[in-house]
Amino acid sequence: MKKCCVHLVYLFVVIWLTRPAAGDEFTLGLLIPYSEPSGEEISVEYLGKYFAPAIIQAVEDVNNRSDILPGHHLSFIWNDTHCNETVALQSMWYQVNERRVSAIIGPACTCRTAARLASALDIPMISFMCNDLTYDRIDYSTFVRTKIQVELPKLSRGLAMLLQKFNWSQVAILYENSTYYTAIKNGVVEQFKNEGINVRCLVKLQLHVPCETTSVKNLTVFMTDLVKTIKENARMSHEILLHAYDEGMTNGDYVFIMLQLEQKQFIVNQRIPAQYHLFPVVEDRRCDYFQALEAVIVVEIKPMDSANNTFADFEKQVSERFNDPIFPSREKLPLRYDTALHRLKLKNLKE
Predict the structure, then answer these.
(1) Could you give the 3-state DSSP secondary structure of residue 12?
(2) What pTM value is reported for the model?
(3) How would you classify the pairing of strands 103-105 and 25-32?
(4) Which of 1, 23, 30, 75 has the highest CB neighbour number within 10 Å of its CB?
(5) Cα–Cα distance between 284 and 45 in angstroms, integer?
(6) Is residue 84 scored above 90 in pLDDT?
(7) Residues 253-256: contacts with CB within 8 Å, 24+ apart?
(8) CB distance 92 to 117 below 8 Å
């Protein structure tokens, strides 16, 4: 069960559905990438079949409490977006126009157009996965996200201030080859240039490609700068640091700034802080890696107070009840939901 997505669904139901509506019934619209799009690969965390059961529990919890929606009843319908924006918009239109939903959870993969449309129609929408970077509060007035978001202007200014604090003016940026990190890289580079910080080189790294076949091994050929800002996944960061150690670049002449901006890592850090220390490293390189970390500054999302056990209790409840994480099959969906959701009206779902 994907921890973040379970939490997000629960938060939306609890926080947003105090919105007035005609009659006694609130209908939620759920837009999820239930199945993998044909011919494409998406990260497993985006596949709705691994977290969709959470909404069954969340809806029941709301209906069983008299303090959240007194005098009302909550139900939901859902559509598979296949992680496709066109399909998501078509499904959204069906839910809004034909099923008269009161609010929408989703979409996951991209949400800019759907969020703009929801705001124009004055329908609350919350996305639990969308990574699109910038939304203003006027044009997207009814849209919120529970996925942790990086405010690019603040991040860029903060990094610039950090470099200026120590008079570091020569920088190389290594970044993951993804839309998300490329957008962050572009914003940071623009800010650095405005602040007079010289970006000496940009290196695009690829996921699942060994360091030997990337330009990482050639970094020392053209790098004479002081700061390296690393924006990519943990595996790459560890390989880069070990390579830097081997090249004698972690002895104080260089500093490496590592950015940990992923929600998955944030959740892990809530339980066990400083996970970058615990990344599995080959036994005979562990001491080398720990020494390399002395040249590292980590910029990460600040953990929240974890004293509140509301989510942990909800996660446990869902996990125990739905020990098979897969959503009910499409053939059995109406029957299974009828039982699980006190016979909610789900017979006319549009595929």
Answers:
(1) helix
(2) 0.60
(3) parallel
(4) 30
(5) 33
(6) no
(7) 253/226, 254/225, 254/226, 254/227, 254/228, 254/295, 255/166, 255/168, 255/226, 255/227, 255/228, 255/295, 255/296, 255/297, 256/227, 256/228, 256/230, 256/295, 256/296, 256/297
(8) yes
